[in-house]
Amino acid sequence: MLCAACGEVSPTEVVSTAVMQPTLARTLSGLRYCCRAPTDAARHYNEREDDMTPRLLILIAACAPIAFGQALTITTPNALPVATINQAYSVQLTATGGSLPYSWRFQVGGNPSVRFTVSGSGLLSGTPTSADLGVVTLAMQVTDAGGVTVTKQLSVTVLATQPLAMTTTAFTPGVVGIPYSLTLAATGGTPPYKWDVLPAIVTFPVPGQVAPGLTLDSATGQVTGTPTSATSFSFTITLKRF
Questions:
Q1: Total-model pTM
Q2: Within a 10 A sphere around the Cβ of 43, how many other Cβ atoms?
Q3: Burial of 166 by CB count in 10 Å (0-12 exposed, 13-18 middle, 19+ buried)?
Q4: 140 contacts 102 by C-beta, under 8 angstroms
Q5: Is 93 exposed, middle or buried (0-12, 13-18, 19+ CB in 10 A)?
Q6: Which of 4, 7, 109, 123 is disulfide-compatible with 119, CB 3.0–4.6 A?
Q7: Would strands 123-126 and 134-143 be described as parallel, antiparallel, or unpaired?
Q8: If you count DSSP H runs as helices and E runs as strands, how many of each does the chain have, helices first?
Q9: How far apart (Å, rounded) are the C-alpha atoms in residues 183 and 209?
């Protein structure tokens, strides 16, 4: 750059970058001093008319802030759903952050059970056997499109039988004077089951009574009878194996 005062070349440092850098440090060399006081044009570089400071100019072009995305993270809970031996099992693994698409695999040495496999899209599946009974720990690894990789230890509890659970969640409405019938359902455990009813308020003197006119068969889980009162009743159904 020419000095506005004397026409001589002033040292100029031009820095061009497409990405903003947190710190910019440059060393300038070959500094020259003007021989005369600068004109008004030169004062744009913060020079005073009565000094002999070097004429320096740093130009920074194409500056842009850095955009930081969310860090890649495996969001699948540490404890996976329970599995049962000799029954097909599958669960979709999930992650957030990084850049799509993701690629899943077991970490080296992270799959002690050959019955479990994982697809590139993160579907963990398999059919565990009696050799897998207990808690199986799996080291999962996901890699994003940018090559970033994270791992997480997940565990699945393998049971000999499916946990006992009641699948009936609500009773169908009854009508006073009209015969009523409903069979409760359950899964898991080892049949036969034993059903029982615990009224919220002890107002029914008949064992197994869920409402006036309706009783529960503890062996079959059937609720039968003819309702005699038009109101709502609260009770608790219990289920266990014989």
A1: 0.51
A2: 13
A3: middle
A4: no
A5: buried
A6: 123
A7: unpaired
A8: 0, 19
A9: 15
Can you tell me the distance from the alpha carbon of 38 to that of 55, in angstroms, rounded to the nearest whole number? 10
**Amino acid occupying residue 75:** T
Tell me, what amino acid is at 122?
G
Per residue in 203-218, pLDDT (tens digit) is: 555 667 888 899 999 9
Which domains, from first to last, does the chain contain? Answer: 1-67 (no CATH), 73-159 (2.60.40.10), 165-241 (2.60.40)
At 42, phi and psi to the nearest 5?
-75, -20
**Rounded to 5 degrees, what are φ and ψ at 49?**
-70, -25
pLDDT band at 43 (very low <50, low <70, confident <90, very high): very low
Terminal CA-to-CA distance of the chain, rounded, Å? Answer: 97
Q: CA angle 98-102-108, nearest 5°?
A: 105
| Other beta carbons less than 10 A from residue 126's beta carbon | 19
Could you give the CA distance from residue 134 to residue 155 in angstroms, rounded to a whole number? 10
Using one digit for the tens of pLDDT, what is the confidence trace for 225-236? 999 988 888 888
pLDDT digit string (tens) for 58-103?
544 444 444 467 999 999 999 999 999 999 999 999 999 999 999 9
Strand bridging mode 83-84 / 193-199? unpaired
Q: In the numeric block, which tokens belong to residue 149?
A: 């990789």
CA distance 128 to 106: 17
